[in-house]
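Milestone 3.1: sequence recovery, worked example.
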């Protein structure tokens, strides 16, 4: 067909090119090391789930379930959804595999793609990557504190720069229900000040008013009662213990009674880290406790706590990495096609020694091959002709080598 247009990646998605892929790998390695040493095991769940995992788990009244899910029917007419978040699937898996029979808490971490149908902007995508960690089966406040500190450690290890930690408690489901009623009443009295959207969702989810940046809503909300002032004694005590442990660890945070987070399953501790280096989408990661979620997905009553952090935003905040240490690449050039077999054998031999070796594979002239070796930043070039020579790219010295592999190894030592 004449004039077939260029096909592009779907809106809100992106390709990861090799230099970025390397940075993502390094971040994943940092997370794996940090979380592994803390006793968290790597866990994978499917990229899609039965839709009810999210409608029941995340909550039917949330933005995610109401308007952001990629939901489709499979050929058997079952409703499936590309996962918008990782906690509900892990709770589904915990119940499905009877993991309550394991020693508690069960500590897990994951990394993978997530999907939300949001309006794309800087730092907000429709497919993005999260690193997450969850601990199920214990309500000990030291686990809340441990998880918050691990996320702070991860940010520190990968160099995201200054962060702001907001912390609050969302009480238990009963307290929150009673509070939502109180807040709804209060907001009704200020209805004329509220944004269209907040007013439309007053019945469904009044707490979302705290997330609005509409000036009138903000003004109304400033004087609203706070859930943090309605905690029952055991929830208040739990929160107090989390705070003591964070204080003892020397981690700074802001108590913020307006922090509600966008998911229904949270109870007690909630927190969010923001970066000072990012724009409007400045949330690096956040999470909290979800003591009713496993049960809601058909499992036994099980407390849980966890977080998720956005890989793309972490890398944006971390900025460009320092230049890598001295190159360890070797380039193999050859004079004529007759020498390709020898060059290829040397390529294999060098790679077998664990070196980063490349050879000419695009038909360049010998001069072009040297230019290419320069571009690669090669530390050494092996030149295959009737004899084999090795050039030290640092000193410019070039000499015949009876054992080119040994000579290269010597240069790279
Ligand atoms: P949430 O559980 O919604 O707070 O998400 C946890 C983290 O994932 C956020 O703090 C962001 O860093 C990241 N994140 C969430 N949604 C997106 C998105 N649409 N695009 C990129 N990153 C996201």
């Amino acid at each position: 067909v004449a004039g077939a247009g260029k096909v592009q990646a779907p809106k809100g998605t992106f390709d990861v090119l090799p230099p970025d892929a390397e940075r993502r790998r390094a971040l994943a390695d940092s997370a794996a090391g940090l979380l592994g040493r803390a006793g968290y095991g790597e866990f994978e769940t499917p990229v899609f789930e039965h839709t009810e995992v999210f409608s029941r788990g995340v909550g039917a009244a949330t933005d995610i379930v109401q308007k952001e899910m990629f939901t489709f029917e499979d050929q058997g007419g079952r409703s499936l959804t590309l996962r918008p978040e990782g906690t509900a699937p892990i709770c589904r898996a915990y119940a499905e595999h009877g993991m309550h029979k394991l020693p508690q808490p069960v500590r897990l971490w994951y990394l993978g793609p997530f999907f939300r149908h949001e309006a794309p902007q800087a730092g907000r995508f429709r497919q993005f990557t999260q690193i997450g960690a969850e601990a199920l089966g214990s309500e000990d406040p030291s686990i809340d504190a441990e998880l918050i500190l691990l996320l702070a450690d991860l940010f520190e290890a990968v160099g995201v720069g200054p962060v702001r930690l907001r912390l609050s408690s969302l009480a238990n489901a009963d307290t929150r229900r009673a509070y939502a009623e109180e807040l709804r009443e209060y907001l009704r009295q200020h209805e004329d000040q509220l944004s269209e959207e907040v007013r439309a969702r007053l019945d469904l989810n009044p707490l979302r008013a705290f997330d609005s940046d509409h000036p009138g809503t903000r003004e109304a909300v400033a004087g609203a009662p706070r859930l943090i002032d309605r905690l029952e004694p055991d929830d208040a005590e739990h929160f107090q213990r989390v705070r003591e442990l964070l204080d003892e660890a020397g981690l700074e945070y802001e108590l913020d009674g307006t922090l509600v987070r966008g998911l229904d399953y949270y109870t007690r501790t909630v927190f969010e880290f923001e970066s000072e280096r990012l724009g409007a989408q400045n949330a690096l990661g956040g999470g909290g406790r979800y003591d009713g979620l496993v049960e809601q997905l058909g499992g036994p009553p099980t407390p849980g706590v966890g977080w998720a952090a956005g890989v793309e935003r972490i890398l944006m905040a971390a900025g460009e990495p320092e230049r890598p240490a001295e190159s360890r690449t070797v380039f193999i050039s050859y004079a004529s096609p007759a020498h390709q077999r020898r060059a290829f054998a040397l390529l294999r031999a060098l790679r077998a020694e664990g070196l980063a070796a490349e050879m000419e594979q695009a038909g360049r002239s010998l001069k072009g091959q040297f230019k290419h070796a320069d571009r690669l930043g090669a530390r050494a070039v092996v030149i295959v002709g009737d004899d084999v020579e090795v050039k030290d790219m640092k000193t410019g010295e070039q000499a015949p080598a009876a054992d080119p592999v040994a000579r290269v190894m010597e240069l790279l030592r």
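The chain has a mean pLDDT of 94. Residues 85, 116, 118, 123-125, 128, 130, 262, 283-286, 308-310, 312-313 surround adenosine monophosphate (CB under 6 Å).
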